Amino acid sequence: MGSSPKAPAAPDPAATAAAQGAANKETAYWNAIMGNVDQETPYGSIQYTDSSNGVYDPNKAPTFSSKITLSPAQQQLLDSQQANDQGLQDLGSAQMGRISDAVSSPYSFEGLPDAPSYSDVNALSQAGQDAILSRLNPQFERDEEALRTRLINQGIGTGSQAYNTEYDRFNQAKNDARQQAILGGQQYGGNELQQMLNLRNQGIQEYNAQRNAPLNEYSALTSGQQIQNPSFQGSQAGNAMAGDIQGATQNAYQNAMGLYNSKVGAQNSTQSSLFGLGGSLLGAAGGAGGFAPLFAGMFSDRRLKENIKPLGEENGHNVYEFNYVGLDQKYVGVMADEVEKTHPEAVKTMENGFLGVDYGKIGVEFREVE
Which of 187, 221, 255 is the last residue of a domain? Predict the structure, then answer.
């Protein structure tokens, strides 16, 4: 059985991070190289310039500049547009004097028709009502005189039931007419109010238009359209991804630790079974310091030993110095696998699956090393 496995060394975080950072920077540089692609269109061209001249320097961030060149026709349009814009700007500047005059006085509605009040509404309604009643009242007087004459001619006396009934009808008709006069007066007042509001709003609009006209003219003159730069399509170059150095390093370490733990577990399992068997046999033999040859023979399997060192031959058999796994005491004895080749009758497979040797049959003494 070999020596105990060694645990893998943990990765250096600083070194791993530095390697990852270097990979990230180099990847970013090449992505920039692949992304800045010169282009030519009917409207113009764009060229990119790399300050590093294609030489990657990990200690210096690369910079790129771009230059857009218009086609001759587009350049002519731009020049014409700029000349027109300049002319409009000059006209706009000339408007500054008018703007100053327009905005120098405080914003005010003085001189415009007054906004109607609640009392104005009532006065207008009353005026409308009075106008209607001024036409109805003379008619009421004529109708009442005609009614009185008719009743007298019919012989219906004042105060009689028929007389009072006729006058009730007449007064009801007169009240209905007065109510209509009131409603007509309100409608008249509403119409007059709306006309007053319309006149005021018209005056406000005219005042604002007059005050804002210089500003609107200036804005129109100084906001001319600009020539549009030619549009370029984005580069279709691939996007390189930096290798995951940190992840790969950590995965490798975790895999190594898994293998180490697996080996340790296997060794512990084997040693546990050996030590259990050895404990019972050693107890029967009087402890590790007093191995009897019989029990030593049970432990002749090479897999139970370590630190094996050849010493020579005894009675035609190779003898070795060794210690049992987990014990410090050294012994001298044979290896069962070698004895099995020359004296198979002296070798037996034990219940635990290991090979044992009957030292009495091979003429070799099993002994402790002082």
Answer: 221
Mean pLDDT over the full length of the chain: 82
Q: Are residues 130 and 212 in the same domain?
A: yes
pTM (two decimals): 0.32
Tokens matching residue 262: 């697996």
The whole-angstrom separation of Cα 25 and Cα 197 is 73
Residue 192: its pLDDT value, please? 85
Residue 294's pLDDT band, with cuts at 50, 70 and 90, is: low
Q: Which has the closest alpha carbon to 237: 35, 4, 15? A: 35
pLDDT tops 50 at residue 8: yes
Nearest to 169 by CA among 195, 206, 141, 144: 144
Number of structural domains (the chain) is 2
Q: What is the pLDDT of residue 331?
A: 96
The pair of three-digit structure tokens given for residue 352, joined into one six-digit string: 């635990």
* Residue 23 near residue 51, CB atoms below 8 Å: no
Q: Is residue 62 part of a domain?
A: no
Q: Are residues 186 and 280 in the same domain?
A: no
Can you tell me the mean pLDDT for 337-348?
96
Its domain, for residue 336, covers: 265-368
CA–CA dist 24, 130 (Å, integer): 95
Query: Could you tell me if residue 285 is inside a domain?
Result: yes
Dihedrals φ, ψ of 305, to 5°?
-120, 160
Assess whether pLDDT exceeds 70 at residue 175: yes
The rounded distance, in Å, linking the Cα atoms of 138 and 134 is 7
Q: What gap in Å lies between CA 341 and CA 55, rounded to an integer?
A: 70
